[in-house]
Sequence to fold (555 residues):
Amino acid sequence: MIMKFSDGDLRRHCERRLGALERERQSWFQHWRELSDFILPRRGQFLGLPGQSDRGRKVNGRILDSTGTLAARTLASGLMSGVTSPARPWFRLTVGDPALAQAAGVRAWLDQVQEAMLRVFARSNLYNALATVYEELGVFGTGALLVLEDEQDVVRAWPLTVGEYWLASSDRQVVNTLYREFPLTVFQLVERFGRNAVSQHVREQYDAGAWDREVAVVHAIEPNEGRDLARADNRSMPFRSVYYEKVGADDCLLSVSGFEDFPAMCPRWHLVGNDVWGRSPGMDALPDVKGLQTMQKRFNQALEKLVNPPMVAPPSLRNEAASSLSGAVTYVADPTGVGFRPAYQINPPINHLASAIADRQRSVQAAFYADLFLMMSQLDDVRSATEIVERREEKLVMLGPVLERLHDELLDPLINRVFRLMERARAVPPPPEALNGQAMDVEYVSSLAQAQRAVATGGIERFVSFAGRAATMKPDVLDKLDIDQTVDAYGDLLGVPGRLIVPTEQAAAAREQRAQVQQQQMALQVGQAMAAGAEKLGGIDAGGGKNALQALLGR
Fold:
């Protein structure tokens, strides 16, 4: 059934749905607010859009111990360098059929597209946006990244902060709806949507020169149910995109368009049941983070009282000069020792307090996996390279489920989205005929992904080493080992670029050619040896006017 909305009906539909999403999201607000107050005070939007006059206000007044903030930063940096490092390739394009991957030009084309995509990632702001998403993900449990088309850099990423957007998911728990609220100045509104699209109030402000007044704008992205499949305009795409001013615009819309695929990536750290919003390490660490603030406050109070204790003095000194500075003299009327002195003597257990604080700090760092990403700096003695690798692999087991969710909810849709935008921008070379109608796969070769697969590579190494030792006792055992397949499998697990591994057919042809050359060389050597022997026999006198060669041949 085709449903056609007028602008007024579409706006009322979006407003009703935004209200429903807001009621569902409200139960998470208090938790997010505490995470923002104690861990990431500059993230999150909980009191509506901030005004221009108070954006630089001090917001970290509740933080006395920054362990949580630093641990969250370590987690985000570790994910950035370990999953999507700008310094090295972190994914590889493949095809599901191994035989197809060996077809002429397929591997070369896949490598060219991969390199082109990595250049787009580096040229645009995608890496900066991903760093923000990792931080939001680790603290609030949910991240949101909006990737839109850009004329200059092919793609442009917009990382969102918790509290400024609303999400909904399909029955498969895949996020397919995003509403967001953001500010635009009067000038930006007119520049982006045109004078005729904005409300009368905005036009009046624009004409009056109030260009920098901010207006709240709502952007709704949702499935375009009931679209007309026979039409190819931007209102009939699989996903609908609607912009409108939040207040004062009656039934007017700023724009209505669409997307061929969902343009937002919304990873969740951990999901429970059919929740839309995720849970995070920050939520696990929040009790310890809050406890640290209290412990630091008490520790500082104890230290202050120890260094600068409260003093008592007789009433006769009420109007007399008194000083607690080093080397200063205070004249006391009563020299019997009852005069100017500390009110009470305390001996706070500073060492015990410091040890308790250190234990709580380690708990916070463990919740954010800081002990994994800072493992080398935390080793208290010299370790062998093998032991370091094994310890790292042991810790990486804890990140296995998280990496799978990142691949599924962030990186897979991100790579697909960037590839399609590059296709529209004609930034992808034409594929070879063998790939017509074939789907591409993505294989992740980041350092964390490879560490997760290190068990497989270690098994191959141990198997080859065992076969080598067994061959010393029975050389025939090497017939059980297919070295070519072993090299291919090992290279795939390590993410070695395909152009560095020679295809099996090409390697077989090279071996055959090398064997023919060796046979020709051996035949030539045999011929030369026979000629030299004949020449030698021809120089030996056998009597009767014949040489040894003639006598041998019976001539």
About this structure: The longest strand covers residues 175-185. Residues 141 and 279 are 4 Å apart (CA to CA).
